[in-house]
Design goal:
256 residues; alpha/beta; Rossmann fold; 7-stranded parallel β-sheet; 12% strand; globular; binds nicotinamide-adenine-dinucleotide
Length: 256
């Protein structure tokens, strides 16, 4: 353990598993106290228990639920230093098949949640005289690249770039920094749901110059950096741990 986040109070959404869990784990290892938020009650309880932190079951797609999360934060700590808007889902559908409900659900979870959580969190950040607050949004390479049947996902992540930019500007006078992380293909359940056969794996690898999927810890390391004072002059930016994908035109060879 090092202490880059010593004494910091952090909320991480979508923290029961995957990247969110990895971030919560890394924050705790760096000395932070973390409130883990997730909709999956059973998995959240297990993860929170393993990390020795509090878990709060909530559906971040609803503003009333967001308000309940930050009421708990106010009661628990009286202030807040770090928010990670990580909860997110995909929905595969061709353009002609896409339904309004599915679009609205993905947008509410991936994007709207981050806006209202940022609003609520900002009210608590620095209010108790503490400084150096930071918000980290989970974007994706799909903010700037796209997969034709991941329509709401790509639009939500593209909009996350501007949500990050505009809230960074709005909160700069308060000294609150807002940045985003745009991962490539990271080995979690979300990716396992997409990388279902050899052809899908080859497609992904042909667009991954480093030749492998990323690990949760490699995204968590960026989150620690963006949450800590090491990134004290960075705001409004998206950092892409993507194995080189965004720089690649065409494809790289894959092992058959
Ligand atoms: N895995 C990847 O390759 C990858 C790449 C780029 C971006 N991302 C982004 O990283 C984030 C985490 O993805 P992951 O791969 O860890 O996914 P995951 O499916 O493993 O975990 C997502 C977590 O969010 C929770 N969640 C879903 N809906 C929720 C809701 N309404 N309220 C509260 N919690 C909710 C789930 O229960 C789950 O614990 C997402 O925003 C995703 O878009 C992932």
């Amino acid at each position: 353990m090092t202490d880059r986040l010593n004494g910091k109070r952090a909320v991480v959404t979508g923290a029961a598993q995957g990247i969110g869990r990895g971030i919560a784990e890394a924050f705790v290892a760096e000395g932070a106290e973390v409130l883990l938020v997730d909709i999956d009650a059973e998995r959240l309880a297990a993860t929170a228990n393993e990390l020795g932190q509090e878990g709060l079951v909530a559906d971040v797609s609803r503003k009333t639920e967001i308000e309940r999360i930050f009421a708990r934060v106010a009661a628990k700590w009286g202030g807040l230093d770090i928010l990670v808007n990580n909860a997110g889902v995909t929905h595969a559908a061709e353009l002609d098949e896409l339904a309004e409900d599915d679009f609205d659900r993905v947008f509410a979870i991936n994007l709207k949640s981050a806006l209202w959580a940022t609003q609520s969190a900002a009210r608590l950040m620095g209010a108790d005289g503490s400084g150096g607050s930071a918000i980290v949004n989970m974007s994706s390479v799909n903010a700037v690249l796209a997969i034709p049947n991941q329509i709401p996902y790509a639009i939500s992540k593209g909009a996350m770039k501007q949500l990050t930019n505009v809230t960074a500007l709005a909160l700069a006078p308060k000294g609150i920094r807002v940045n985003a992380i745009g991962p490539g293909s990271i080995m979690t359940d979300m990716l396992r749901g997409i990388m279902t056969d050899q052809a899908a794996e080859n497609r992904i690898m042909s667009r991954t110059p480093l030749g492998r999927c990323g690990e949760v810890e490699e995204v968590a390391a960026v989150a620690v950096f963006l949450a800590s004072s090491e990134s004290s002059y960075i705001t409004g930016q998206t950092i892409y741990p993507d194995g080189g994908r965004l720089g690649l035109n065409y494809t790289v060879p894959v092992k058959e």
